[in-house]
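User: structure tokens for this one?
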Amino acid sequence: MSDGPKKIIKEFSPTHVVHLAAKTGLSNKISDYKANTEGVENLLDILENISSIKHVIFTSSLLVCEPGYFPKSDTDYRPFTVYGKSKMMMEEI
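Assistant:
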């Protein structure tokens, strides 16, 4: 990743970030969902060194659990699609 996004975010000096972006679709290859995993890692790497940051919110998806499954904790996942798995991986990051 280039330093462009890092420079822009640092110059803007945000205090709050709400991350709503995600790659969706019906692909059966986890590599097609790099925006959901590597994208989050890249954003976290940038935000880690921005001193103005006070709060960051990442959104996920109901698809981290199959329909009808009630998770027992915030880290109890049961994805049933590759997209759901990518969002589970995002949550674990």
